[in-house]
Amino acid sequence: MPQIINISTADIIHRLKLSSQVPGLVEAIASQKIIQEVAQKAQITVTPEEVQQQGDNLRLANKLVKAQDTLTWLEKHHLSVNEFEESLYNKILAQKVADHLFSSQVEQFFYQHQLDYVVAITYEIIFDDKDLALEMFYALEEGEISFPEIARLYISEPELRSTYGYRGRRHRKDFRPEIAASVFAATPPQVIKPIGTVKGVYLIWVEEISQPQLDEQLREKIITELFNGWLKQQLECMQIITHLDSQSLQPQKELLKQS
Q1: For residue range 133-192, what is the model confidence (pLDDT) as tens digits?
Q2: Under a CB-based contact definition with an 8 Å cutoff, are residues 58 and 88 in contact?
Q3: E strand or H helix at 231, and its extent?
Q4: Residue 197 in contact with residue 140, Cβ under 8 Å?
């Protein structure tokens, strides 16, 4: 017979406090209140059909094929059907408020920050010795060795070595500042002269640089970024008062006064 462990609401709240997760939850609650207030003033609404569609999308994403699968998922997340629908409603409402506030600003923002959305595909090898990095760079230029061969020789991490130092598709902000300028000034395919940093000396092969296109995916990304920035500003301008164990916090306030 399995051992039973009882966990109360107080246990959960206590654990959230100990793991320093309360501030994030408080901000999320305050953010939702701000969104609801804006939606009310702008007369933004969410229809039952939209909630149903959002629910279908979530069930598809989580592979909840049967009704019992959904019920099991709800049980795992301690959600009633009404709470589940409320979470879907809140997500749709946030998206609509974000669109309402920032959809008209996307084009201007994109053209002002176009460089931030350029993507580079790179392969990187980090050396401890600058002279060795330079030696490999010149050997590459002379065609005496290939970048994959250098990667096999000088990358110690097995997974990174197996992909020859492949770092994927990254934006300018994803690179170290001292590296970004050289990477995005390259003419792919091109190996960049070794760059010294506090972490080591980088030998980088720039395979591709992709110029951004303002498609629907990027449009949504920009709206989300603008909306999140706006929400953060709203929170910073507000005084958030929480009523959580106010009595138990009183002795601590007295101690702070005494100190």
Answers
A1: 999 999 999 999 999 999 999 999 999 999 999 999 999 999 998 899 999 999 999 999
A2: yes
A3: helix 216-236
A4: no
